[in-house]
Write a structure and sequence with these properties.
Blueprint (H helix, E strand, L loop, with lengths): L5 E2 L8 E7 L3 H9 L7 E7 L6 E5 L2 E5 L1 H4 L2 E6 L41 E7 L5 H9 L16 E3 L7 E5 L11 H12 L4 E7 L3 H13 L4 E6 L1 H6 L3 E2 L1 H8 L3 E3 L8 H13 L18 H20 L3 H9 L3 H7 L3 H18 L3 H20 E2 L5 H13 L5 H46 L3 H19 L2 H17 L1 H15 L7 H7 L3 H7 L6 H10 L9 H11 L4 H25 L10 E3 L8 H35 L14 H13 L7 H9 L5 H11 L3 H4 L2 H13 L4 H11 L3 H27 L2
Parallel strand pairs: 7-9, 7-10, 10-11, 11-13
Antiparallel strand pairs: 1-6, 2-3, 2-6, 3-4, 4-5, 5-15, 8-9, 12-14
Helix pairs in contact: 5-13, 7-13, 9-10, 9-12, 15-16, 15-17, 15-23, 16-24, 16-27, 17-24, 19-20, 20-30, 22-23, 22-29, 24-27, 25-26, 26-27, 29-31, 30-31
Bound molecules: guanosine-5'-diphosphate and magnesium ion.
Guanosine-5'-diphosphate binds next to helix 3 and helix 6.
Length: 785
């Protein structure tokens, strides 16, 4: 790079630039192009993250954050003022309707053959991240999928049936920005459309961010699958004086467009009508050709059409859409090239064609494709859309961001917010409801026992009910309020868009331990439950980052560990209980940081992936979403208590009350459990946890962490203070914090990382837990706790 070249890095806050050249290489560069970072695009530098890196840019009317290192690869020229290349329309003119999207009124039905009645109409719900796919999916199907205001909430596909149309199956896919796979979730979405061959696509487009959203739309149109566009967030769009010439827009794109507001359930019925219609009659987009003959003296146009004719037969054989394959071949998409199976000669001919185009247009192949698409998008928008004024939401977001991501205020605010969340959860709201619930449970238990005594049930059953179920399950149930409160706060943070900011300003710190800001998202989810957290790592673009993050998330205290903390903290640390609990959370984070440093310098050398992420506007968390999530989590918690935890308490109770000859024992040290746990007990002696009953509880924790408390309660009842003291309580707390999460989490890890990893991670974590528990004991003994 010559000295004179100015890059994005040289921009100062509020300065503008025009992109001249996009450096870098491979998937990351493609990703930049797909996000609209293309030659000719105009940008404004909005701000730097509090620690100076990454930066936030305004481009194509949305906010993008990227690292300085990557910004240094993008050559720009500074400009004084940003102006749109084209003149926008001033008023909306009503075009004649092109005949799309009106339930086929303008079509001659006789020439069309509908699919047979019993054919299932399959739909793919495709769109950018945060465009409202899951919200729409829930509206369409009446299901309860999780909605969140940060990229990467949906990481796996989910299927559902459109309400009122039994013969349909709609699939909610992870959000993608383009059909060039960048992260593993993007591959899920692309493969679904290419390989599962849905009968139609519902493309959801965020109207408030239309340029960038249409980039994906264009590529979907190239695939020549029946499609309808759901133009979402119309409430915000029109609320801020945006307007659209819908008929003109439909005509230019060649597919039906239905304005909707998924959150308000407006326009959804009309969308369904269209969706059913286009799938039934297999109405394909009217247009796949988006290149202009005049553009770059026709270089790009010529190139695409030549490649199309060169690969036509191969595409047909491979079952790939032609125009799509041609642009992907030009972009050098290896997956498509392999499927096309071209021979050496053909490859060389194509290479010549592309080289010629690069020479004539002065752009490289990937940039040329991105340019062609954005060019078309610009033409569409300039003719049919009056952009909304800077929205109230945007202005509000900026104000909030001045504080929450401000240079000096971001990290203190983050700490204050987290501290408040935990204090409210553990010291105020949680315990208040817990006391009430506790009282209910014990009076209910008493009632149950009275009933049993009056009807005179046999003593074995009585013991099972009183010691097993009431003590065991009851003790776990009483933590219900705390868990729900924690989820309440997490969901508010998520839904409001705050978590995306945390990722943004923590990026620099994260890189010091070899991770990127994106890893923060799965970790925060890990405070709720490890299983979704492990799944959420699919949004991380590199294998290395995914592995590291998955190995670290279990150290974040999941909500199932709460009953253990609460039980011991209340019994041994009195009014300091809340602080002990918060301390444990912090300790888990510290251990994770230490582990990350070790991993970074041993197994996972190298750098974290570049950070490119969109920052969504802050939104008022919708009460419906939050309630829905709370309802889900509550159901989950109660089901767990009465399934896996109930079963494990019954098993433990049985093993504890019978000997190997299945005789009931008076003294439980003669029981089967004592026998088995006896083998393991010596192992825990050095930790001061050598009692076989404690060992049992820890082993039962593998099934579900709440079982630790259930089992302890069964074994010791209220005499816990006779067996534990402050030191051993601290030791078992640290051990419980760090050792393997439940089987479900191990299964999730195995699913993500492959065989062997599940068991490996479990063993490794037990080892780490043992080590730190031992150290804790030494420290506690030393300070004389
Ligand atoms: P996904 O990532 O595409 O699945 O998007 P989500 O369904 O998770 O929604 C992202 C955010 O957009 C959430 O905060 C929703 O509440 C919000 N949202 C979805 N649809 C609308 C809408 O029509 N209007 C407004 N104002 N917000 C919406
Ligand atoms: Mg989603």
């Amino acid at each position: 790079m010559s000295n004179k070249e100015v890059t994005l890095k040289d921009l100062k806050v509020n300065e503008h630039g025009r992109i001249l050249k996009v450096g870098g290489e491979g998937a990351l560069r493609q990703h930049f192009l797909d996000m609209g970072v293309i030659p000719g695009a105009e940008v404004t530098l909005v701000k730097f993250a509090p620690l100076g890196d990454p930066m936030e840019l305004q481009i194509h009317g949305y906010e993008l954050s990227l690292r300085l290192e990557d910004a240094g690869k993008i050559v720009i020229e500074k400009i004084d003022e940003r102006k749109n290349k084209h003149q926008r329309i001033e008023t909306i003119v009503n075009h004649a309707h092109p005949g799309l999207g009106e339930d086929g009124i303008f079509h001659d039905k006789k020439t069309e053959v509908p699919l047979p009645e019993d054919e299932i109409l399959t739909y793919a719900l495709v769109g950018n991240q945060n465009s409202g796919k899951t919200t729409l999916f829930n509206q369409l199907t009446g299901s309860n999928q999780h909605v969140g205001n940060f990229p990467g909430v949906t990481v796996d596909r989910k299927d559902g049936v459109i309400r009122g149309y039994k013969n349909t199956c709609i699939t909610d896919l992870p959000g993608i920005y383009s059909m060039s796979p960048y992260t593993s979730e993007e591959i899920v979405s692309r493969n679904f459309v290419l390989n599962d061959k849905p009968k139609a696509i519902i493309n959801i487009v965020d109207a408030t961010n239309i340029e960038r959203n249409l980039y994906l739309t264009i590529q979907l149109l190239e695939m020549n699958v029946p499609m309808v566009i759901a133009l979402n967030m119309m409430d915000e769009f029109t609320g801020n004086k945006g307007a659209i010439d819908l008929n003109g827009f439909e005509e230019m794109l060649g597919v039906p467009v239905v304005p909707i507001s998924a959150a308000k359930n407006e326009g959804v019925d009309e969308l369904v009508n269209h969706a059913i219609h286009i799938a039934k009659y297999q109405e394909r987009p009217k247009k796949q050709d988006f290149c202009l003959k005049e553009d770059h003296d026709g270089a790009v146009h010529r190139c695409i059409h030549t490649v199309e004719s060169l690969i036509e037969d191969h595409a047909l054989k491979a079952g790939l859409p032609l125009r799509f394959s041609a642009t992907k071949v030009i972009e050098n998409d290896q997956l498509i090239l392999k499927q096309l199976d071209l021979d050496q000669n053909e490859k060389e001919t194509i290479e010549h064609v592309i080289l010629q185009m690069e020479k004539e247009s002065g752009m490289d192949r990937s940039a040329a494709m991105a340019d062609m698409r954005f060019d078309f998008i610009e033409r569409v928008c300039e003719k049919t859309i009056i952009k909304p004024v800077e929205s109230k939401e945007r202005i509000r977001s900026e104000k909030i961001d001045n504080l929450l991501t401000g240079k000096w205020t971001a990290i203190p605010c983050f700490i204050a917010i987290m501290a408040m969340v935990f204090l409210l959860t553990f010291n105020v709201i949680g315990p208040f409801f817990q006391d009430i619930l506790d009282a209910w449970i014990s009076s209910l238990g008493d009632l149950l026992l009275q009933l049993i005594d009056t009807i005179g049930v046999n003593p074995v059953i009585r013991s099972l009910v009183s010691e097993g179920i009431i003590e065991g399950v009851g003790s776990v149930l009483s933590f219900f309020p705390i868990v729900v409160t924690l989820f309440f706060f997490l969901s508010i943070m998520e839904d409001s868009g705050y978590i995306a900011r945390v990722a943004f300003f923590m990026d620099k710190l994260c890189r010091k331990i070899g991770l990127s800001g994106r890893s923060i998202v799965p970790m925060l989810i890990g405070f709720g439950c490890t299983v979704p957290a492990v799944m959420a790592t699919r949004t991380l673009p590199s294998k290395r980052d995914r592995y590291m993050t998955i190995l670290l998330t279990p150290f974040m205290s999941c909500s199932a560990k709460l009953p253990i903390y609460g039980y011991f903290a209340n019994a041994f640390f009195g009014n300091k209980a809340g602080f002990v609990m918060i301390g444990l959370y912090l300790f888990g984070i510290l251990v994770a940081i230490a582990m990350a440093l070790i991993m970074k310098n041993t197994v996972f050398t190298g750098n974290a992936v570049p950070f490119v992420m969109e920052l969504p506007n802050y939104r008022m968390p919708s009460a419906k979403n939050v309630l829905r999530l709370l309802w889900d989590k509550s159901k989950d918690f109660i089901t767990r208590a009465f399934s896996i935890i109930l079963v494990s308490t019954i098993i433990v109770w049985f093993l504890q009350h019978f000997d190997i000859h299945f005789n009931m024992v008076e003294d439980d040290s003669l029981s089967i459990l004592a026998l088995i746990a006896g083998y393991l007990a010596p192992l825990f002696k050095p930790l001061g946890l050598g009692d076989w009953r404690i060992v049992t509880s820890l082993v039962s924790g593998f099934m579900a962490k709440e079982s630790v408390v259930a089992t302890l309660k069964m074994s010791f009842g209220s005499s816990i203070r006779e067996v534990f003291n402050a030191t051993s309580a601290m030791t078992i707390l640290v051990f419980s914090l760090l050792y393997t999460p439940c089987v479900a989490a191990i299964a999730a890890i195995k699913r993500e990382l492959g065989k062997g990893w599940g068991v490996g991670v479990a063993l490794w974590q037990c080892l780490v837990a043992y080590l730190f528990a031992f150290l804790t004991r030494l420290v506690c003994l030393w300070i004389g706790l």
